[in-house]
Amino acid sequence: MTRFIDLTLNGISTGAVYAAVALALVLIWRATRIVNFAQGGMLMITTFIASSVINTSGSYWLGFVVALASGLVLGAIVERLLIRKVEGGPPLNAVIVALGLLVLLQASAGMIWGNTPRSFPPAFSIRGYDVGGTRVLFSPNDTFIVLVVIGVAVGLAALFRGTAIGLKLRAAAFQPEVARLLGVRVGRMFTLGWALAALVGSLAGLLVAPAVFVGPNQFDPILIFGFTAAVLGGLDSPVGAVVGGIALGLVLSYVSGYEGASLVTLAALVVLLAVLMIRPGGLFSSTRERRV
Amino acid sequence: MNAALRVLRKPYGTLARSLALVVLAAVILFLVSEALGAYDDLQLANGAYYFVVLAGLTVLTGLSGQISLGHGALMAVGAYTVALLIGNEHWPLVPALLAATGIAALVGTAVGAAATRLRGPYLAGATLAFAIGLPALADKYTGTFGGENGLSINPPTPPSALGASFPLERWEAWIACVGALFVLFAMNNLKSSGTGRAFRAVRDDEIAASLCGLRVGRVQTLAFVLSAACAGLGGGLLAVVLQLAAPGAFQLGLSLSLLTAIVLGGLGSLTGAIWGAAVLVLLPSWTNDLAHSFSLPGNVTANLPLAIYGLVLIGAMIAWPSGIQGAVRAVALRLPARRASGGS
């Protein structure tokens, strides 16, 4: 029973990270209809920047803030310089540009910081809480991770539903032509969408880095499972991204705990296929699948 | 040569044109393989099995409009089939390759049937999960699949009629090229057949296609099965050429580079698949040589080829949205026009 509770808690905290990456992917999908495979590379770069800042200044929170700010800037630059050129073209071309950017970012990080993964400090203690004399697999840092991801999800919902800029973002995403006629600067909204997504992505990188270490390829599984979580929940739904992330985290934690870590990827395949066979547009798809 | 080109251009029927194309390609490949050294023959063999996979993938994505990030795993199915049949059961080469094609097609039937309900990124997600999920089986059943080390097989022996000193690499290149020519013939026919038209109709408008009496799901599954068969054959040829089937060769990176190769080459065209295969084989070795020709710090030298690859992908997609073949076609269209205006 304690093992089950441990695996559940562990699943929730890893699932929260998948949820954050999924949120970043969903934001970009909603804004520009592009699956941003470069997200893994972008959050890798910002986490490396945080690592360098922490090492030189000695302050975790300074590195944290610098990473978020650089994520915001990086997202805006990528959209403005690269993605703008392939938006509205064949959808696969944007995917290939994103993949090319992922490779380029990974190679650049390897050139600057080397290919050997390095450790990354957690925000809070990673010693599990003592509950009635036994130590559970959930630490103050895990609490921090879950709270931050919940906070981001609620914050994004408030931004999209409750503010004028959120309304413009949604209008630009769903009806760019009409939004442009109504005076929304659609291009700026796309840039803002990418910047926000990269901010959320860089947050995910900071949260998961203590567990996976920082290296050019260390975040690849996070991107893959984040994408799986986004597809699971439905790429149009931020709620789906969070639910999909937590659900995937739980399933993978149980499978890895009871059946062995080598089956984790196979379990992700089974879960994804099972859900997509019943709901081809993900758990929280609202639009009908057939286009007319 | 001129007669062959005339056959290619005139409407003698698709079959005759495909045959002429294959004969022409066979002659060129034969002469090229004779002229190349051992290393370049091996590169030719690598390019040939990549072409086999890319030709199938470009039909799937370019013609029928479905995306797959899982063809690396289908290649693994073919490679492991060949390794098991040749290594353990001592099957001859050709039946083993046919079995690899068939088994990959079977797996492709299952994936393709599931895929017909999925569109765009959802299909990408499902096939991506397939690409990372399937190699886990090699780890789970270490006894059968050899775990991380994989299965190695003996190199194919060139027939004694070719002489004792016939290089192994050239023989491997010939095997792979015969597979490539076979696929070139089949896919070139398919493109202009009724099936090919059905693929295009489904890609362009599913509802219109189903109103015309096409069973959309079946057409899409068929496209997936055909491309899976190609991937299986390509994977089988890979196992023969490298004499190894190991999980390290079939990581997600392989599936992604297959997709990038068909888009970079030019989606939906078999010539584009040739460009894509050439990029997959030549770019890594060129960039490696380039990186080592400067005396740069170790980190930079190790990562420079990857960086160039990334830059090429981004630059090519922005400069040539319809791939290398699209760019070549645009140049070819402009040439006669310039000549005509110069003459008048």
Throw out a few tags for this protein.
heterodimer, A: 292 residues, mainly alpha, two-stranded antiparallel ribbon, 74% helix, globular, B: 344 residues
Give an overview of the whole structure.
The complex is a heterodimer of chains A (292) and B (344). Chain A has 292 residues and is mostly helical. Chain A has one domain (2-114, 163-278). Chain A is 74% helix and 1% strand. Chain A is built from eleven helices and two strands; from the N terminus they run ααααββααααααα. In chain A, α1 (2-32) packs parallel to α5, α5 packs across α6 and α10 crosses α11 (264-278). Chain A is globular. The relative contact order of chain A is 0.20. The model of chain A has no long low-confidence stretch (mean pLDDT 89). Chain B is mostly helical. Chain B has a domain at 36-248. Chain B is 78% helix and 1% strand. Chain B has helices spanning 2-9, 14-35, 38-63, 71-87, 93-115, 120-133, 135-140, 142-145, 168-191, 194-204, 206-211, 216-242, 252-265, 270-293, 298-319, 323-343, and strands at residues 151-152, 244-245. In chain B, strands 1-2 form a two-stranded antiparallel sheet. The longest helix of chain B has 27 residues, at 216-242. Chain B is globular and about 60 Å long. Chains A and B meet through α3, α4, α9 and α11 of A and α6, α7, α13 and α15 of B.
What's a quick, concise take on this entry?
Chain A has 292 residues and is an all-alpha fold. Chain A has helices at 2-32, 39-57, 60-86, 91-113, 140-162, 164-174, 176-181, 186-212, 220-233, 238-258, 264-278, and strands spanning 130-131, 134-135.
Secondary-structure element pattern of chain A, one letter each: HHHHEEHHHHHHH
- Roughly what is the average pLDDT of chain B, rounded to an integer? 88
- The sequence of SSEs of chain B as H and E is HHHHHHHHEHHHHEHHHH
- By oligomeric state, this entry counts as heterodimer
What percentage of the residues of chain A does DSSP assign to strands (E)? under 5%
Query: What is the total domain count of chain A?
Result: 1
Global shape of chain B: globular
- Major sheet description of chain B: 2 strands, antiparallel
